[in-house]
């Protein structure tokens, strides 16, 4: 798991560098702080959404919507029709959350360096 966290953190840092060069055409500590906070926040929110989906919170809503659309289209039930959303979303969210927290920590460290 630590290997995945490091890989996701490195991917985020490469994305931060690419976005800094794309939008600002320059590399500076202030630009790094701004871009890294936004990237880490987006990845953290995606990880939280995956966590909520895998916890089974949306299973009833997903099942109800599938039944309703099946009735509207007049389709027959298949053997995979009653698979809950939490079983369909089998993506690891812990490594996303931890890598975004690591990038967020580097953002706060850079912020402390910038203001010292």
UniProtKB/TrEMBL annotation:
<keyword id="KW-0472">Membrane</keyword>
<feature type="transmembrane region" description="Helical">
    <location>
        <begin position="5"/>
        <end position="25"/>
    </location>
</feature>
<keyword id="KW-1133">Transmembrane helix</keyword>
<dbReference type="InterPro" id="IPR025007">
    <property type="entry name" value="DUF3899"/>
</dbReference>
<feature type="transmembrane region" description="Helical">
    <location>
        <begin position="31"/>
        <end position="61"/>
    </location>
</feature>
<protein>
    <recommendedName>
        <fullName>DUF3899 domain-containing protein</fullName>
    </recommendedName>
</protein>
<feature type="transmembrane region" description="Helical">
    <location>
        <begin position="93"/>
        <end position="115"/>
    </location>
</feature>
<keyword id="KW-0812">Transmembrane</keyword>
<dbReference type="Pfam" id="PF13038">
    <property type="entry name" value="DUF3899"/>
</dbReference>
<feature type="domain" description="DUF3899">
    <location>
        <begin position="33"/>
        <end position="110"/>
    </location>
</feature>
